[in-house]
Amino acid sequence: TVVQINLASNKLCGLDDRGRGTYTSEGIKAIADSISANASLMSINLQYNHLGPEGAKALAPALSGRASVTQV
Hints:
Blueprint: E1 4-6, H1 26-37, E2 43-45, H2 52-63
Parallel strand pairs: 1-2
């Protein structure tokens, strides 16, 4: 069971820590699907991934109503 995951600075949306690269929301959508499927997750670090509006749209439904996730 995964309760904590650190995905900081992983180019989840194709951009590096300085915003260079080509944006794609595929990576964050996959993470959002995983969050939805994991009822025990309590903490996820997505810092420095340049998620943008599309990433936020993908994450919002996955995190909505999830009282167990206390840190994002």
